[in-house]
User: What shape does this take?
Amino acid sequence: MIPAHVPAELVVDFNIFDPPGAEADYIAAWQALRRPDGPGLVWTPAFGGHWIATDGAVIRRLWADTANLSSQVLAVVPGLGEVMQLIPLQNDGAEHKAFRTPIMKGFAGRHIAALEPAVRALAQELIADIKPSGACDFMPDFAEIFPVHIFLSMLGVPVEDRERLRPLGAQLTRPDGTMSVVELRDAVDDYLRPHVRQRLAAPGEDLLSRILAEPVQGRAWTLDEALDGRHGGDASGPPSRRSAPAARPA
Assistant: This one.
């Protein structure tokens, strides 16, 4: 059902996880939403209904509008934010900063720079595996392996767990309906809980240890906070810059 306040000319049938025409040209599929004389917004009934910003200036204005928009709504998938409760992605204002600061310290430049030899070695290894074939399917053969392998190494968890975790990352970013939001949360929690407990009890030199060793407003992380923060940079891949601010129509 289209809300009364949504102009009919702004309504589009658009699934952000499966844009019409994306098979032929993914970028063109998104560009098709732009209306030269429009307000820089369209509305789709997908996932219960949500707005899509289509203009750069509008997107920048929305990012800055903390008075009307919040990071509480994690994504367009109904229930995802309510179940996940991600720290700091779903925090606003001072609360966001309090939890974001330890994470950013964990990703300090000196730690990232120290990864260069391992990153180069992994890239060379993957390329060497591909080279004899003379061709590859770049996404599954390289792009879906490379960053996750590096991130798991940073977290200090077994890189062999990549195949177990990749489907969870896909369900978070490109849900296909085969796993409920609760099942996804529980699966990630079940994997990360022992690692989080271990780092809280005996921190090491890995990324997760560095983050949890940093105080939050002068105090230690609680176990619940650490588990809620697990998806802000979880084992399925690196964290985003910040969750998108969002507001659902009434």
In short: The mean pLDDT is 86. Residues 170 and 236 are 8 Å apart (CA to CA).
